[in-house]
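During the reporting period the student researcher (J.K.) took over the structure-prediction task from the postdoctoral fellow and processed the backlog of single-chain submissions. One of the processed entries is reproduced below for the supervisory committee.
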Amino acid sequence: MSGGEGKVVCVTGASGFIASWLVKLLLDHGYTVHATVRSLDDPKKIEHLLALDGAKERLSLFEANLSVEGSFDSAVNGCVSLFHTASPVLFSVDDPQAQLIDPAVKGTLNVLKSAAKVESLKRVVLTSSLAAVMFRSTLPEHVGVMDETWFSDPVICEQRKLWYCISKTLAEDAAVKFAKDNGLDSVVIHPGYVVGPILQPTLNLTSETILSLLKDGKELFPDGMYRLVDVRDVAAAHILAFENPEANGRYCMVGKVARYLEIMKIVDELYPSLGHSERCKDGECVESLLYDVSRVKVERLGVKFTPLEVSIKDTIESLREKNLLSV
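J.K. obtained the following structure tokens:
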């Protein structure tokens, strides 16, 4: 990645799992960062950001709300790029429209309306999800590799009550259309299941799930597929998507498709004291691997994927450091 000296960029939802790493890497590369959070009065949202190297000199925090049009005007003013990560990540909701879909779609449009007012800002990098890619109405005739040409079908998602998937799918559609109509260049990153060390003091949903896999009892878990990617790789991909003028369209981000049993065997080898040997017995996988996920386009962008063993070890060490897991 090239140096960011003299360049001002905006990161929305900066206290989140991916966004915190994005802010860290941007500061490490010399960028000046305008970071938005929902509340400047919540130390859990801002203290870990203020503690980053370079934050004192080149990090400014802004309070902004996805539901309020114009809320992001101050944060994007003077920026050359916008990294929009802010969006609710919930898999269980009582009111999908109010809790997920509206904040994702209308919130994204509110952010982009602010961006469109800034003459210096030309490229928007949007954090989406593999959830907006993989739920198709029909699979290709020759199933094997999922890539950027796949699009989730909102009808199928609604039938299966996959509300998060709908929110990400509709938000991407709305963002790409708005950007095209308003002279903004958009690039969309689609991470799979994001793992890796956490910077924020609170657990995000994927880290909470990993923690539950490590802590809950000794019973055998049903085996399934995880499409995994390291959070640091996702953050790096965002920066590369801004810095490379030839970056375009969508980028799927999955470093490794792994069975649950594979993950637990790695855990057992690294941390035998956790006592997961019983979980690592071979069994039939409840989810067959219909397809892998292409890494071709994102590797051309310059992404180098972290080995799964490293991601798992760093995840566990991070949970230990925050006293969330005893090993």
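The committee noted the following: The radius of gyration is 19 Å.
J.K. will present the remaining backlog at the next meeting.
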